């Protein structure tokens, strides 16, 4: 290989059930495919040896474990000083860190990905420990990064407003998993005609509004179209609304985590997709629902407008009554040709394009 060597922060790649981890793995794979003469060194720590990594099986991608424990280095980095680890890694030309901050510390130009600014705009939905970390390190990364990438025009505009004088911001899109374009395979057993919600169960996903809305839907509709919520438990996930009747909550199916390979069948089996999230940098579940031809009722927030255009229904995420009405109308309305248009639109987002965008961003930094 005659091209540059690019260090990659392996932290998100060690979280296989994490949305940032999946984005990072897909972008790394497609960037490495787009630049086969480049070498990509994914940096981990000595205690990551047994940890599963979302590492693409490509000849120009390898993992290097630093001879220090992850937790110890993270504590020093966060609480004391950003100790550079240049001497512990092969010579590299740039660092790509897809987790908000330039981590680990290296004396090379950095490309930092910021997915959203929820910690600025809606701090109450961020776990306190993570909030303190982001407040401390993101502003410094924005000042020092050679380039910044993000996943939506909305977040790019927020970065411009919040961090004047920062390095150039480049869009590196999310992509649709090719599995959503392939023939369906059998998925988990679920009730017929269900309304689907997908996402980690945490305050930002606004499960409270969805359940309050669901309690307002006509019982006959609820019986005909039961609510299925797919997602692993996150922080604050036990805070179910006390004003929703227990018998309504008992009707809701919480599946927990569902394997990626089963998700296309889960979406395809739904009659309606509901996404009441308070804040997103992008909104991949909406893209997946659109690709599956499933009508959607979603929060009226900028990233969802960017994805869905006029092909889905938008509702105030803080208004359970409006959400209930929109869900009820969709469940009782005869066909809607927007779903077919939405399926076509969703196919515009590909990981191949994302890889090209990241490769071009890195090239700009190297130049």
TrEMBL record:
Domain of life: Bacteria
SUPFAM superfamilies (alphabetical): UDP-Glycosyltransferase/glycogen phosphorylase (SSF53756)
Keyword set includes Kinase: no
Gene3D superfamilies to which the protein is assigned, alphabetical: Glycogen Phosphorylase B
Keyword Membrane: no
Keywords linked to the UniProt accession: Transferase
PANTHER family: GLYCOSYLTRANSFERASE WBBK-RELATED (PTHR46401)
Protein name: Glycosyltransferase family 4 protein
Organism field: Cellulomonas fengjieae
Organism taxonomic ancestry: Bacteria, Bacillati, Actinomycetota, Actinomycetes, Micrococcales
């Amino acid at each position: 290989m005659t091209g540059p060597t690019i260090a990659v922060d392996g932290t998100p790649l060690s979280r296989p059930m994490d949305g940032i981890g999946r984005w990072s793995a897909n972008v790394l794979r497609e960037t490495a495919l787009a630049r086969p003469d480049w070498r990509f060194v994914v940096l981990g720590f000595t205690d990551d040896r047994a940890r599963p990594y979302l590492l693409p099986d490509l000849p120009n991608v390898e993992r290097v474990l630093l001879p220090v424990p992850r937790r110890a280095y993270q504590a020093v980095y966060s609480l004391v000083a950003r100790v550079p680890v240049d001497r512990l890694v092969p010579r590299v030309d740039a660092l790509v860190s897809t987790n908000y901050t330039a981590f680990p510390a290296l004396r090379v130009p950095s490309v930092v990905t910021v997915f959203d600014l929820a910690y600025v705009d809606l701090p109450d939905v961020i776990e306190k420990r993570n909030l303190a970390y982001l407040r401390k390190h993101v502003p410094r990364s924005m000042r020092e990064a050679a380039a910044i990438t993000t996943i939506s025009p909305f977040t790019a505009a927020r970065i411009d407003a919040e961090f004047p004088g920062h390095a150039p911001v480049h869009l590196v899109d999310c992509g649709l998993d090719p599995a959503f374009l392939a023939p369906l395979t059998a998925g988990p057993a679920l009730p017929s005609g269900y309304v689907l919600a997908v996402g980690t169960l945490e305050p930002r996903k606004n499960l409270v509004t969805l359940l309050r809305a669901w309690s307002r839907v006509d019982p006959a509709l609820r019986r005909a179209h039961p609510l299925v919520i797919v997602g692993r438990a996150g922080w604050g996930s036990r805070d179910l609304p006390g004003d929703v009747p227990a018998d309504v909550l008992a009707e809701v199916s919480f599946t927990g985590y569902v394997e990626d390979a089963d998700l296309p069948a889960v979406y395809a089996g739904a009659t309606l997709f509901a996404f009441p999230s308070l804040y997103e940098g992008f909104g991949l579940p909406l893209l997946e629902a659109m690709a599956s031809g499933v009508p959607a009722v979603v929060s009226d927030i900028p990233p969802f407008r960017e994805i869905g255009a006029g092909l889905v229904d938008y509702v105030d995420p803080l208004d359970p009554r409006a959400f209930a009405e929109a869900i009820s109308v969709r469940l009782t309305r005869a066909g809607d040709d927007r779903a077919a248009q939405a399926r076509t639109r969703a196919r515009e987002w590909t990981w191949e394009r994302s890889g090209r965008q990241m490769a071009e961003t890195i090239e700009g930094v190297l130049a």
